[in-house]
Design a protein that fits this description.
glutamate formimidoyltransferase; Formiminotransferase_N; 11 strands; folic acid binding; Formiminotransferase-cyclodeaminase, Chain B, domain 1; histidine metabolism; Alpha-Beta Plaits; EC 2.1.2.5; alpha+beta; seven-stranded mixed β-sheet
Length: about 300
């Protein structure tokens, strides 16, 4: 039985096509790895890659892509709407087939140790791989971003899990972890008022008493001159997409603003979309295992 894991590294580059393609080619060059998807956002200045394969191959692809990013991205000149602290900002591993979460945690540690020893990039372990409760939430690690990390990393309680207490001069710091599949989901508003999207993000996120398993921030899409609520949904089974979408619509109306669209970044589990289809179409007694064509084909 072949093991299969997924890796979704986020790189701090969404504008220079030549850099993005160089990272893609690096991943594609690794045997037994399939690059499923990669997408970029100009305003966020960030690219998200998704690839799968055998654990040892995926770990190698993650390392080589991080190495390539460290050579081509200088965080000293990087600007963008999305919080970031490194050229490769985060590298999560997700168990897909015949792999346990504990094994993905060990894969995180293997990669983290290698990034630190071979590339001199300090690494923090996060999510399921975190060694302390404070580091489970990526936002806690990333406070201060690249600029603030230069001083914060010197604090006793900010010592990285791997590497020296000193940021890489151009590549910054990287978070490596293990987690279940999440949905990266953005909702766009017909306003250029960034404060509105920030207030809505504050209302819906779990850390401020909002929806469980929802992380969100308000950002500005400068190229479109609109505000956006950018969301990471870490458990779509407990908090589905449609619930987040509807709450954002309700909150937006308080400010006289409307939702003009939404987007999913990278890949998403099929059931996350089926849940929303069932809700909006008001499907009765719908059975996704028996009534979704692809599910029937896969099980036959």
């Amino acid at each position: 039985m072949s093991q299969l894991i997924e890796c979704i590294p986020n790189f701090s580059e969404g504008r220079r096509t030549e850099v993005i393609e160089a990272i893609a080619e690096t991943i594609k060059s690794v045997p037994n790895v399939i690059l499923l998807d990669y997408s970029s956002d100009y305003s966020h200045n960030r690219s998200v890659f998704t690839f799968v394969g055998k654990p040892e191959s995926v770990i190698e692809a993650a390392f080589l892509s991080a190495k390539k990013a460290s050579e081509l991205i200088d965080m000293n000149v990087h600007t963008g709407e999305h919080p970031r602290m490194g050229a490769v900002d985060v590298i999560p591993f997700v168990p897909i087939k015949y792999v346990t979460m504990d094994e993905c945690i060990n894969f995180s540690k293997q990669l983290g140790e290698r990034l630190a020893s071979e590339l001199s990039i300090p690494v923090f372990l996060y999510e399921e791989a975190a060694v302390s409760a404070e580091r489970i939430n990526l936002a806690n690690i990333r406070k201060g971003q690249f600029e603030g990390m230069k001083e914060k990393i010197k604090d006793a309680d900010r010592r990285p899990d791997f590497g020296a207490q000193e940021v890489h001069p151009t590549a910054g710091v990287t978070a490596v972890g293990a987690r279940m599949p999440l949905v990266a989901y953005n909702v766009n508003l017909n306003t250029a008022d960034l404060n509105i999207s920030k207030q809505i993000a504050k209302t819906i996120r779990e850390s401020n008493g909002g929806l469980k398993y929802v992380k969100s921030i308000g950002v500005m899409l400068e190229d479109r001159n609109i505000a956006q609520v950018s969301i990471n949904m870490t458990n779509y089974e407990v908090t589905p997409l449609y619930r987040v979408f509807e709450l954002i619509k309700i909150e937006a109306q308080r400010y006289g603003v409307n939702v003009i669209g939404s987007e999913i970044i990278g890949l998403t589990p099929m059931n996350a979309l089926i849940d929303s289809a069932k809700y909006y179409l008001q499907l009765e007694e719908f059975n996704e295992k028996k009534q979704v064509l692809e599910n029937c084909l896969l099980s036959s």
